[in-house]
Amino acid sequence: MEQLERLSLVSRIATELHNHWGISDKDLAEFVLHLGEESQSLEEFRAKLKANGSAVTQALAVSLYTSISKFVAKSKKAKAAAASGSTSSGSSGIGAKNGVSPSPVKDSKDEQVSPPGSSTNGSKPLPASAFSVSQHPPTEKELKFPGLCMQNRFDRPELQLARPDDHAPLSAAAQRLLEQEKDDKELMREQQEAFKRAKDGYWGGDHNSSSKGGISATGANALPIGGASGAAGTAAAATGAADENLNFCGKRGAPLERYGIYDGVVSRVMEYGAFVQLDLAEGRREGLLHVADMSRPDGGPCVSADAVRKGQVVKVKVHAIAGTRLSLTMREVDQATGRDLKPRNLQGGTSSSRAALFESLAEEHAQALEKKGLGRITGVKINLDSTEEETAYSRKRKLMSDYDKWEAQQLQRSGLVSSKENPYYDEEAGGILPVQEAEEDVEIEVVDEEPLFLRGQTTRAGMQLSPVKIVANPDGSLARAAATAQTLAKERRDVRQAQEAAILDSIPKDMSRPWEDPNPQPGERTIAQALQGLGQTGYEMPEWKKLYLGKNVSFGIKSTLSIAEQRRSLPIYKLKEQLLKAIMGNQVLIVIGETGSGKTTQMTQYMAEAGLVTPGRLIGCTQPRRVAAMSVAKRVAEEFGCRLGQEVGYSIRFEDCTSPDTIIKYMTDGLLLREALVDPRLQRYSVVMLDEAHERTISTDVLFGLLKECCRQRPDFKLIVTSATLDAEKFSNYFFNSSIFTIPGRTFPVEILYTKEPETDYVEAALITVLQIHLCEPPGDILLFLTGQEEIDTTCQTLHERMQRLESANPPPLIILPVYSALPSEVQTMIFDPAPPGCRKCVVATNIAEASLTIDGIYFVIDPGFAKVKMYNPKSGMDALTVAPISQANARQRAGRAGRTGPGKCYRLYTEAAYRCEMLPTAVPEIQRTNLENTVLLLKAMGVNDLLNFDFMDPPPVQTLINSLETLFELGALDDEGLLTKLGRKMAEFPMEPQLSKMLLTSVDLKCSDEIITIVAMLSVQNVFYRPKDRQALADQKKSGFHQPEGDHITYLELYRAWQRNRFSNAWCYENFIQHRALRRAQDVRKQLISIMDRYKLDIISAGKDYKRICRCICAGFFRHACRVDPQEGYRTLVDHQQVFMHPSSALYNRNPEWLVYHELVLTTKEYLRDCCTIEPLWLCDVAPKLFKPADQQRLSRRKMRERIEPLYNRFEEPNAWRLSRRQGKR
Question: What is the annotated signal peptide range for this record (predicted)?
């Protein structure tokens, strides 16, 4: 038994070494075990490891020594049971936390080892840190879910991924790809600028120092890189050293090392750089010296032909090694002395030779994986033997019956039909597609084994976990009204469609008969001309939209005041001195103020003017939406008096508009979270302002915990949390009972009116209330809250029709204005215009008008008490928008909208009892009702493993965390111990969901990264195709021309290629009903992804027409979304056997492939699959062996066991009357 335990420990140590060093060697693991058994303390163990040439980190030493100590203590106890104290002496002071993770090790000074950057001074004690190991006894939840409360480890090698320089020049390959993304206008503009520079340079006098051939008369002027190298280069050029036996100077035959400096000879000079030959120990190697890595004596940019010449001897540094390719640089080497101007070390605290040794071992491990047919990065099984020609023949084709095949063959043999007209002719391959044999019926099953660190904690083990409630009383009147509203909305939609169909059916279809008839009836041709083309439109803009939205379109809120006067008119201006005093006196400050008070735009400027920006640091302000970050930054730059991107800039995903001069930076909260991944202490920022914190997005909630820890570690750091709601005590209690600064607004009393009985149809009740206010109440605008676009459009249409019926009573005009996110911004700003005299304005809005917008002139608010909430179902893995009751805080916020201009009224279309008993006190934050896979991956990349005790303001549900960890384990981002792998760390670097990151990294192994980058960029935008209601048939016809048999992903790829072939033309997009703005956005994302891939030295290779590789990459990322055709209807998901249906807009609609994967699952009238891609079933076992396995052919599969015999329908008998058990007694 002891031998088995020893073998298990050796295997565990080998896994740990593989995770940290990338080396999987059992002999090395046994040697480490031997050193641990001979060591009496942790320091002695680390010293022995260092003496044997291994620079081990503190975290790795603690992990290894803890495991070895436990084994030694257990073996001693078994051998000498009488010696009870041997366990403590053998463990050397190392304990275990909850039996899962070791507690912090104490060094020789008996001081607890703290996380990097933690405060250890003797100042006043800080509150308990979210990153420190909890010392309290384990709770019931911690004992129940040990996989969620592992010890935080911040110095693991997997977390210390080398960050590339964001401002480093791109490689030549990446620049060529970016050149292909330029349209004709950009190329023409660059040519004009280049011509202008050349012209200015010529007339500036540079031509006087050169001869007719363009070569300088003197060797010193010909070679801008002077010194010994220049002289040697001149001599080499003079002797014609252009052949293979080039003369080298300096050290020869040195081994190749990264960041090593060598003497080389320029062999070729190109436009984008030069190739330099190096004489190494393993032979001659040639590397690329990019033009950006060259330098002139004055340090400025240069052209490759001006910087080096063929045959010149230069001193270069090896910047990167990628297989047989070398990337060289001259900028970091003194060409006169060969001194390294920018010395680097691969691992802190170790010598360069030792670091190079570990890097070479990791490279050998990657090469060993490659020899086994596995990917170097992801370890996915690869098979790249198929050629493009083979792939072209293996593409899908339409099925034909035997009779159709025979008929096609006879027509071709007779000569009436050419081979190109054969249905099986392939234009790409230039031949007839071979006859495909019937595919073998492959059965794939889901692996039942749980991850080791989650064993007994998942739903597979029978763990019953209750989801978070978003409704206080599921059986109350509000819940019933929400359920009824969906049924009524469907009925209204059906009635409207029936009316439109009846109008079209009443129109005569044969419009040409009156023109063909030589003797038509009087007036018949006139009627035909009036009705001609009416049935083809299919859509006409409603009258209310023409009346209210077609006129007086404005862009932005108009103001006649100057910028300085507008700033002084804001409520925050009067409190400037008090606000700055509060910021100076508090490290954390909570600022409460209504929308429009000036918090977002003015506070950052006040702090910059007060000198809170230290040299080299910024003032950061987060926004929950990227559009808000861009628009606010533009406004602040205008007020600050600078260009956008200079002193004031913004950063959003895939777009950075900042410069070294930036001191005020607006960004999305997700981007600041990614910056915290690199720098947890946020050293670049002196002040961070979390704006709109009341929206409680996922990134904001995670930033709460990270910034709270940052305040503990940095006394000079200041945090400001702003909110538009009155729930400030919760924020203050969370942030160390911090001070609250309130910006008083113009508030007036609001009268609250409730209904006496619950309303079954709140839309109808809202319409009646609007008309009642309009006809009976004094002047004042109305604000009506509804849930979505369809509901708002229906209400506006109905309200307009009812106002038309009241024209006989001569009521005052009512201007109806909708507000929802899909409306153009210029139309949305119409709500800010005051109503004309004698008119009343009725704004029908979603919950965006609660706190994000302030509309002057509102005196009456109608609150039905509902809003659409995005809810994530961990069981089905699907996000769904459901109509749910709002919270009491939202109801108070809505009522407050009526008291901004004067005393107002709020009509609540629910009872007071429902308000008190059926509404939650505050809204459920997004972190408790959304998928958390990306959030958990980021926390793991920061070293936070104790998710259960992380300092969330509102902890997420345990079931969602467990499912997220399970998904990351299946993707290969976590190992068997729940720790982050090297693949997971690389996945965390990409600003996208983990599935897309895995797909992108797999494409590097499968050599199709160019196409996958395009697909990821296209998936990041929405609504690429548009379908105008007046030309739906033509739009569908144009869209079908891009459809590919492999699915929607390849359709997006071919669409982008077609746009690229047409030189990115907007006219081409208009002709094909494509949103050119969406394609432009996808192009920007593609450019950013190319830059990211290039900086991380990931190859960008095209697979051409080999779509199998591309589909395999998609399967590697979205294997959990695999589906198979259901014999009854639709598809069945492989993981949870849920019945789903293909969306009608998919390229695979009505094709019904046997196997597919989807990108997302949406719930409308059914569970629809969006963006589908065909796959082969055996790919699932190759890319996800932890989740799928081939079914045993000797036994009946689970899918076939679930199938049941469904008899034909018989209206004369019961459904089960055919069974023998029901036929007893019948003859």
Answer: none
